[in-house]
């Protein structure tokens, strides 16, 4: 099991940078063509994930499981979790 620590200052900083980049992306109105291109890229990424591709390499089942575990315990990802989510209840 992995142990991690992230200070409240670090958590807030990570969350703010995530929100500011998200608002920067959504702040301008994208044309229909740009929206279509973004949707195509999203679908392509889903297809790649279903085929086992991560970081431009096809992973084995074991490799993919290890990658997902690393993502699940990454402090940057954990700091983005909704405060009200309480998996222990």
What does the model show?
This protein has 89 residues and is mainly α. The protein has a domain at 30-76. Helix content is 63%, strand content 4%. It has four helices and two strands, in the order ααββαα. It has helices at residues 8-27, 32-50, 61-73, 75-78, and strands at 53-54, 57-58. A two-stranded antiparallel ribbon has the order 1-2. β1 and β2 form a beta hairpin. The model is unreliable at 1-8 (pLDDT under 50).
Number of strands: 2
Helicity level, as a percent range?
55-70%
| H/E element sequence | HHEEHH
Low-confidence stretches: 1-8
Computed over alpha carbons, the radius of gyration is 17 Å
Q: Per the principal axes of the C-alpha atoms, what is the gross shape?
A: flat
User: Beta-sheet strand percentage?
Assistant: under 5%
State the helix count.
Answer: 4
Report on the biggest sheet: 2 strands, antiparallel
* Order of strands across the main sheet: 1-2
* Cα-to-Cα separation, first versus last residue: 20 Å
Q: Structural class from helices and strands?
A: mainly alpha
On the 0 to 100 scale, the average pLDDT is 75
């Amino acid at each position: 099991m992995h142990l991690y620590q992230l200070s409240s200052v670090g958590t807030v900083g990570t969350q703010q940078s995530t929100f500011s980049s998200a608002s920067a992306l959504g702040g301008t109105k994208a044309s229909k063509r740009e929206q279509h291109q973004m949707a195509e890229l999203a679908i392509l990424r889903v297809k790649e994930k279903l085929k086992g591709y991560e970081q431009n390499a096809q992973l084995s089942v074991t490799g993919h499981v290890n990658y997902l575990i690393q993502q699940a315990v990454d402090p940057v990802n954990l700091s983005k979790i909704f405060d009200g989510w309480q998996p222990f209840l």
